[in-house]
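A quick word before the example. In earlier lectures we treated sequence and structure as two separate objects. From today on, think of them as two lines of the same record. Here is Transposase written that way.
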Amino acid sequence: MIDAIAWKFQTGARWMRLPEEYGNWRGVYNRLRMWSVDGTWEWVFTALLAQADADEELNRVVSVDSTIVRAHQHAAGAREKGPRPASRTTTPSAGPTAG
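And the structure line, produced from the sequence above:
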């Protein structure tokens, strides 16, 4: 079950593309959802973190998931209200000419 869930997230494929060796994709998907709701994943990650900390093998890593982090509209490049400014025209340089 864990391998099936890991395969799905490593590949980014749709659930329906889950290889047959992992079983029915609906069963894997439903198990993932059940474990998310009942706190199984939280318990597993807490236990793994405690074990790594006890073994002094813990390296802290921060992961930011963009599905839950939102930027303000101005940070995303949205323009302010009103017409766009006209683009500046380019004029040739008045530098020396080849002679």
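Notice the following. The first helix runs from residue 2 to 11. We will return to this example when we discuss secondary structure assignment.
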